[in-house]
Amino acid sequence: MIQAGGWLMLPILLSSIIALAITGERFWSLQHKRIAPKHLVGQVWQWYKGGSLDEEHITALSKNSPLGRILASGLVNREHPREIMKEAIEETGRQVVMELERYLNTLGTIASITPLLGLLGTVIGMIKVFAAITTHGVGNPGVLAGGISEALITTAAGLSVAIPSLIFYRFFRGRVDELVLVMEEEALKIVDVMHGEREKENIQDSVA
To answer: Is the pLDDT reported for residue 158 higher than 70?
Structure first.
């Protein structure tokens, strides 16, 4: 089928391999437990309340997960006003969001271009059909079969790659948005508690 589809099957096949690799990598990387581990905010609060929140704990926290990295950037500025602590968290948060969205633009591009590659294959196949008709007439179906099969195969291949790519692109975009909201809520929770703007019982719920 790859040979029958012509040379445009090569970029379509390459796109399918890249899309499959991105999908597997993002499924692994965007696990909730890897991005925003449960009870992490509660653990930070226990360190803070027990007076053991030092540079060593903050360094370990920054290497724990993306959420830990965001929390660590705020804790470094815990002695400063709330606005400064929040700005540090937001700046790190923007960097973390870019990392969470890694490769998603590529996946979206594949979902967009593979149908166009299939359409291009269809056009090329039909050009070959009309060229064969001009040369041999319509009396020999075998002469026309090559161009028709190339047109249909490339279209089907392009759609077969584009449809799942678009599905997973939308899925991962939604997953990133969900994780960003969770991290934002957890980070603001620790900021507000440390600056006395939220009841400490809310942090205790994160420990349980």
So the answer is: yes
Distance CA(13)–CA(87), nearest Å, equals: 45
Q: What is the pLDDT of residue 29?
A: 92
> In terms of residue numbers, what domain contains 177?
2-207
In angstroms, the first-to-last Cα distance of the chain is 57
Paired tokens of 56: 């060593």
The model's pLDDT over 24-41, given as tens digits with 9 standing for 90+, comes to: 999 999 999 999 988 888
- Return the residue matching tokens 């040369």: 135
Residues 6 or more apart in contact with residue 138 via CB below 8 angstroms = 144
Structural domains of the chain, count? 1
Q: State which amino acid sits at residue 31.
A: Q
Are 143 and 128 a contacting pair, CB within 8 Å?
Answer: no
Q: In this structure, which amino acid lies at residue 163? A: I
> Who contacts 34 (Cβ-Cβ below 8 Å, separation ≥6)?
65
Of the candidates 208, 187, 207, 58, the one whose C-alpha atom is nearest the C-alpha of residue 198 is 187
